[in-house]
Amino acid sequence: KGANGLDKVVLRQGPRISAEVYLYGGHVTSWKDQFGEELLFVSNKAIFKPPKAIRGGIPICFPQFSNFGHLEAHGFARNKIWTVDTDPPPFPVPISSRAYIDLILKPTDEDLKIWPHSFEYRLRIALGPGGDLMLTSRIRNTNADGKPFSFTFAYHTYFSISDISEIRVEGLETLDYLDNLQDRARFTEQGDAIVFESELDRIYLGTPSKIAIIDHEKKRTFVVRKGGLPDAVVWNPWDKKAKAMADFGDDEYKRMVCVEAAAIEKPITLKPGEEWTGKLELSAVPSSYYSGQ
Ligand code: BG6
């Protein structure tokens, strides 16, 4: 059991590498490396209680990213209780040496009232022997009425960092982005890498499958690899927005950055019986081992 009696699953590889998953939200809340060091940020003020989504870790935004639609912000998957899937269909990933858990989410009658589409969402969370964390989402349209549905999606990952002014994000140079702070106007990234000097909230479009977050002070680089997810959101709330969030400490913005593998600009459409796969692979390497693209 985790906080407030919520169910959680712990995945382990050896004595120190681990990940924790709450069934509430199908939400990864911890990912530790071979030194037992935490790699994900979770706010000290996070509320581990429905219906508020957990502030930090890896919230799943489905079937809607942010307010791109009429649903609650970031959709409802992050505040539903998922179940352990004991009989998943075969996943196209080798699992021999990985610790993993399969979860499933299906809509309740209440969910169908706000989003009238029947689906099966299977989520596999796997931890590799070297500590890589892999999330595979498979979403199937199970509508019996013959209707397609469309959704937007994000793995809203909160990375733990030494200091927001010490990091840079590489892999998004020269790309177009929508700026959430300027009515989603479209701009083209000009800099060599993204650095942070104030609030930043952008949706980068059509990004490469690999993005790096380089933490100079920690001498650590996070490598984000994604599949089926063309976009990437980069977010830091900075001081003012941090103060405005009840479940986030005033100074915590310095220790986190969100880099989110996403499908936003072009929603995913599934016909009945069709399935979509969206993958996220995270690794943390000493910066000296990281040689860029
Ligand atoms: C980011 C959005 O993905 O999530 C931001 O780009 C938003 O605009 C942030 O503020 C946090 O959202 P929430 O609903 O978890 O507070």
CATH structural fold name: Beta-galactosidase, Chain A, domain 5
Runs in which pLDDT lies below 50 for 5 or more consecutive residues are none
Helical run tally: 2
Largest sheet: 8 strands, antiparallel
The hetero compounds bound to this protein are:
6-O-phosphono-beta-D-glucopyranose
* Total count of domains: 1
The number of distinct β-strands equals 19
Beta-strand residue percentage: 35-45%
Q: Structural class per helix/strand content?
A: mainly beta
Q: What percentage of residues falls in helices of 4 or more residues?
A: under 10%
Gross geometry: globular
Q: Terminal Cα separation, in Å?
A: 41 Å
List SSEs in N-to-C order.
EEEEEEHEEEEEEEEEEEHEE
| Mean pLDDT over the residues | 95
Q: State the CATH architecture.
A: Distorted Sandwich
Identify the CATH class.
Answer: Mainly Beta
Radius of gyration: 18 Å
